[in-house]
Amino acid sequence: MKRMKGILLCFALMLIVAGSAFAQADKLVTIEMWYGAAITEAGPPPDDWVVYKILREKLGIDLKITAEPSNENDQDVKILAAAAANQLPDIFMVRRDPWQVLIKQGLVAPVDDMYPLMPHRAPNHFTPDSIAFTTIRGKSYGFAFPGSLQKNEGLVIRKDWLDKLGLKMPTNLDELYDVCYAFTFKDPDGNGKNDTYGYGAFVELYDQEQYLGRRFEPIMGAFGVAGTWNMTAANFGLNAKKPEFFEALQFVRKMVENKVIDPDWPSLKKDDFRAAWKQGKFGVMREQMAALAAAANYAPFDKNFPNGEWTALPPPKGPSGKSSVGVYDMNYRIYAVSTKAAKAGKKEAIARLLDYMATDEGYKLIGWGIEGVNYSIDANGNISDKGVPEDTKFSSPKGQTVTQLRNMVFYNSEMELISRYPYFKTANGRTMGPLLYLKTFQSFPWTNVTGSGTIKPHPNNADLKRYINQGVQEFVLGKRPLTKENFAAFVAQMDKLGAAEWEKTARREMEEAGYLQ
Question: Which CATH architecture has domain 153-323+429-450?
């Protein structure tokens, strides 16, 4: 962490002398780059792409680019074959597994000395998390570029129901339970019918979110057991084996037994779940920002309940004060610099290239193209494809060719997000849109499990997962008595099926990859 703080301090100092980074080199430096195309079915930038001309004239760089295969396995084969022939390009996108192989072979250069050369890119791309992602044994071996939008889900609550019943926003599990009880039994919608529930969910399982799945993560997080794996060095392992997991199941069992959760949750599908909240069936849930508040998705709820209001709810604190919306995995794209390029003295030129991409000019040219040709600026100063030629706007097939490198500049900025998630007005005139929720969701506590998605499945994976997930559901549904003795027996059988062996193997993998926190 001290090393990262030192790097970030260098960024700040370099801002003072940023202009020198763009001084034209004495001679043209050729940089060969393999990139991940933003739109795999679209072609590469044209030969007369304006960015090529700017790089040559302003930065002294002759850029040669090649799109990598869209299939991940084909990407790996191409890169490893080039490595075997000592023909790696100067800079290239690489998945983590082959990247680690190249590091061991000495074919990827450390880039710690390049970070301070990129003051424009530093504020939005180089964070302690991103630097840690490419740091192995104290050295950074590549640049981590932001991937898909993270932390875009959150717990939300019907504020109009709270107001109707004179209740305060819950802050801990006990208060959450009391609110859910009131939402179930005190007619929060005032229709005189017993047709509401406090909490809504369905079983949504992913590799990193097993057991009860994503919709229950704010409850599991209150006990410190969000996600499939605990990714800390001190307590690594399957969360389902932790004593705190037993306590979390006790709380969910209480919700089920006392009928404050929609009883259909074990059988609901995603579409059923979303139809239910739009029909006013429950008052607390975890939901994705666009599924909740994009114009088309919000419209049915708005029609049914024009005065209804979902507000973001901080995840409740558990018995020891812990809280978490759930897990997140920083899905970065790695761009590595070859040792061959470093030996050829190309590091400084590569840094100039990456930093130019992050300037206002480079960001817009690579992200959207040329103003008036590929995009326009609306009255609010936002990027738009209105008022430009239909065949060249950035969303057209031709326009997509000049934005093929946008994954190297995009970082989910306000400008990017507004173009993807516009605001709109509700039936009663309120401003609504996904971005009203995103920043709040992202500000809540989350559990970082970066790396857990790369853990190799157990050889008996299907049987083991089925045993664990089925057992967890049986406990909370009351089909199996939730006692300490039964839970201990459940964990012991997990180990017999291979859980303990899996944990040991996974720990070695995660330690070698530098993922444990």
Answer: 3-Layer(aba) Sandwich (3.40)
